[in-house]
Structures are given as C-alpha cells and as structure tokens.
From TrEMBL:
This is D-hydantoinase. Residues 55-420 form the Amidohydrolase-related domain. It comes from Kitasatospora indigofera. Pfam families: Amidohydro_1 (PF01979). Carbamylation allows a single lysine to coordinate two divalent metal cations. InterPro entries: Amidohydro-rel, Hydantoinase/dihydroPyrase, Metal-dep_hydrolase_composite, Metal_Hydrolase, Metallo-dep_Hydrolases_sf. Belongs to the metallo-dependent hydrolases superfamily. Hydantoinase/dihydropyrimidinase family. One of its GO terms (molecular function) is metal ion binding.
Length: 467
C-alpha cells in the first residue's frame, strides 16, 4: 500500500473550508484530519506533500470537451493525449468528452471510435457523453443499454446544424421521453439552426463575410427561442433538461423562469461567455475568427447576467466546450466566408484559473468556484462523490493550488495544441502547483510527471443532481 499525506493546506470543497491534512491510500482519499491534530500527526506516509499557504481542492471536472472532433472539414487540434495533459496543467483531472453517432450509424459505432481515440492516450480520467445525430427506434434502445451499463448516461441533441447533427422537435421529444424512463440526461444545443441558416445565406449574399457576422446571424433571439422550446418539450416529456453553453441573457431568463416554475432544467455556461464578447469577434485582420464558436460570443452586457445566474444557481456548471482549431490552416478556412470557420475555442487549460480570478475579483465565493467547476459537474453526470470532492473513499484527484501565483496567459507557454490563446496577455492570480490523479502526482512545480495512458475510462451513474 502506498500512503501520501498532504499537510497544512486549506481544504476547499463545495461544502466547507478547513485547515486539514489529507491522507491518501492507494489512490483514494482515506481520511481528513485537522492540521496539527493528534490524528493527523499519527499518520505515517511514504510521501509527504507540503501545502502550507495553498488551497487543497478537488481536481477540476470539465464535462464538455471535444478532443479530435471532426468538424467543418477539419478536426479539433488537441488529441486526447495533448488535451488531457493540458487539462491537468490547468488543474482539471476529469473530462467528459462527446462520442458522435456517425450519420447512418449507431451510438455503438460512435463510442467505439471515441474509445479508440482515447484509450491508452489520456493523462487523466475521462468519460463520454453521446451525441445523438439520428433518433430512431434502434438508437432509443441503445440509449437504454448505455445508461444501464454506465458507459454513457447523457445524450446531446442539437437544435442547430441542419444536415449534420440537427434533430427536429419530434425526434427531440422521443429522446426526452426515453430519458424520462431510463434516467439518461438530455443535453441540448439550443439554437434555432433552421432560422440561422437562412440568416447566414442572406448575410453572405449581402457580402457580409467577416467573422463578426457569425455573431450577428446567430441571433440571441434564436438561442432564447430554442431554449424555451427545449424546456417546453422536456416539460411535455416529463424529463429533466441540461442546456449546454448558455451565452445569452434572454436564454438564461428562460431557464430561470422554468426553474422558478419548479422544472428540473439546468444550465451550463463557459469561460468564453463570461470573459469574452462580440468585441473579440470584431477584431481586425480576420483575428475575430479565433473567437468563432456556437453559441456565439455576445455583447459585453450579457456577462453580468451570466455571473448573476452562477450566483443564483440558475446556472449550475461552468465547462469549457474546449474545441480548439489553429488559426493557421484551420480558422483560416473561413477567410471570405465566416460560415466556413470551424466553430470552437480552446480553454480546457484555462477554466480553473479564470474562475479563480472571479473569486479574487469578488464575483463568486471560493466554495462556489469549487461547486460550479468540480462538485456539480460531477453530480450532474453521475461521477460524485468519486470525483468533484475531497472525502474518504473519493479518488485522490487533488490540486494543490497557489492562490497568490501570478501568471500571464499566452499561447507561448500554454500546453494545448493550438497556435493561439483566446486569453492572450491576460494576467491571472492563482495557479495549480501540484496535481494528483488517483494519488499519482502528474504535475509538480512546473514539471510534468504524468503519462499518456494513466487516465482511465469512467463509467457513470445517472444524474445525481435530482436526488
Ligand atoms: N459548438 C462549437 O463551438 N464547437 C463544436 C460544436 C458546437 O456546438
Ligand atoms: Zn453545442
Ligand atoms: Zn430563480
Ligand atoms: Zn460542444
């Protein structure tokens, strides 16, 4: 048995803060005891990690990533190897990525393809949601068995991207009805893609080809409308609903109203919507392409609404939707036609630190930081308390976090496999000093000690946020 003790840090979970030592045995947390107590002093250990002046927090849980996602004639530039390593550098120790059902194929084929990409390559633990691109009878049956086995207990549907991932309302309703019975959580990309495609065509015909028009045609109204429609469909089906990447204040208002009416609807937002805006999309020399993602960035005033939603719990989760494409050769595919810019932003390495900056700035509390970035994502997707907290029995996925370290975010120093940073030049206070994945130190003081293949596939329970 290997024993590690982390001494002298401030343990921060979603529920409490305490000056405690943490005992790890064989990759799991065995005990917590007040620092200096006779119980803690009595522990013997093979390794002692000093954490004085630092926080000891659960590793980040990022439930929305797209490593190696084929999109727009190219593929997201982070592999499972580079992307999970970058995640760990940024204090994230679990990701849940999306396996895509191939057109005309089964969920099984999608999962097999994603297992093949990830297995043996991940530095941290990982799970899969499934993107359902064709709801049919055999897919509905597959959903049952995937929930039963825990291989995938959540399913993403798209109201956007006609001809690619899009599902019409009837298919959405059928999937929700199935989820209401089997416990699978439906995740929704809520944008009216049929209407957006009309506006795209009209914009291009009028010579509006710059990246900023991506933000203009993907109208806020069409996110709010789709969010409203998704909520009503879920209400008809009697199922809970998780809306991914909420970017618009009016879409958030739809969620808040439904929650006030007692519905189990949940919302996720992402750092790009909290920290970036349409100002970035309007950057000259095609630089705006770096900020093209869907849902799109919104005008600055939406940020305040999203922060408020995070404080009031109308939004429960911050994940990244990490989907990086290099500027050179990938984003550039859309020069002269914004609709050909591959959609997505890098961020898996930056999320924990950006949100810690919000703690420093007084926007959210320290415990809320852990709640929205670790505990709730784990509970929402059936990984709790194995992931997302620090408690006896949990995996020892831990970050020893230096709250005073100052860093300047830059593509020159980040670890994501992408040639730009969406947060270039931003100064942040706070940084992961030591990162453990199931008790193994993978990062220490700027030295990478992890390895591809350490990360294991996670079977998951159904949503635990409802019980
Ligand atoms: N949005 C993105 O920005 N990228 C990938 C898929 C999506 O819905
Ligand atoms: Zn989406
Ligand atoms: Zn409310
Ligand atoms: Zn996504």
């Amino acid at each position: 048995m290997t024993r590690t003790v982390i001494r002298g840090g401030l343990v921060v979970t979603a529920a409490e803060e305490l000056h405690a030592d943490v005992l790890i045995e064989d990759g799991r947390i065995a005990a917590l005891a007040a620092t200096g107590s006779s119980a803690a002093e009595a522990w013997s250990a093979d390794t002692v990690i000093e954490a004085g002046g630092h926080y000891v927090i659960p590793g980040g849980v990022d439930v929305h990533t797209h490593m190696e996602l084929p999109f727009g004639g190219t593929a997201a530039s982070d592999t499972f190897e580079t992307g999970t390593r970058a995640a760990a550098w940024g204090g994230t120790t679990t990701i849940v990525d999306f396996a895509v059902q191939p057109v005309g194929g089964s969920l099984r084929e999608g999962l097999d393809a994603w297992h093949a990409k990830a297995e043996g390559n991940c530095a941290i633990d990982y799970g899969f949601h499934t993107i359902v691109s064709d709801v049919n009878e055999s897919v509905l049956k597959e959903m049952d068995s995937l929930v039963d086995s825990g291989e995938s207990t959540s399913f993403k549907l798209f109201m956007a991207y006609p001809g690619v991932f899009y599902s019409d309302d009837g298919r959405i309703l059928r999937a929700m009805q199935r989820g209401a019975v089997n416990g699978g959580l439906i995740m929704m990309h809520a944008e009216n893609g049929i209407a957006i495609d009309v506006l795209v065509e009209q914009a291009l015909a009028a010579g509006k080809t710059d990246p900023r028009y991506h933000g203009e045609v993907r109208r806020e109204l069409l996110e709010a409308e789709a969010t409203h429609r998704a909520i009503k469909l879920a209400q008809v089906a009697g199922s809970p609903l998780y809306v991914v990447h909420v970017s618009a204040a009016s879409a958030l208002a739809e969620l808040a109203r439904a929650r006030d009416d007692g519905l189990n609807v949940f919302g996720e937002t992402c750092p790009q919507y909290l920290f970036l805006s349409t100002d970035n999309l309007a950057e000259p020399d095609f630089e705006g392409a770096k900020y093209v993602c869907s849902t799109p960035l919104r005008p600055r005033e939406h940020q305040e609404a999203l922060w408020r939603g995070l404080r009031t719990n109308d939004l429960q989760v911050v994940s990244t939707d990490h989907c990086p494409f290099c500027f050179a050769g990938q984003k550039e595919l859309g020069r002269g036609d914004f609709s050909k810019i591959p959609n997505g932003l890098p961020g898996v390495e930056n999320r924990m630190d950006l949100l810690h900056q919000a703690v420093v700035d007084g926007r959210i509390s320290r415990r809320r930081w852990i709640e929205i970035a670790c505990a709730t994502p784990a509970r929402m997707f059936g990984l709790y308390p194995r992931k997302g907290t620090i408690a006896p029995g949990a995996d020892a996925d831990l970050v020893i976090y230096d709250p005073a370290a100052v860093q300047t975010v830059s593509a020159a120093t980040h670890h994501m496999n992408v040639d730009y940073s969406a947060y270039e030049g931003r100064q942040l206070t706070g940084r992961a000093r030591t990162v453990l994945s199931r008790g193994t130190v993978v990062l220490d003081d700027g030295r990478w000690l992890g390895r591809a293949g350490h990360g294991a596939f996670l079977r998951r329970d159904t949503c635990q946020y409802l019980t």
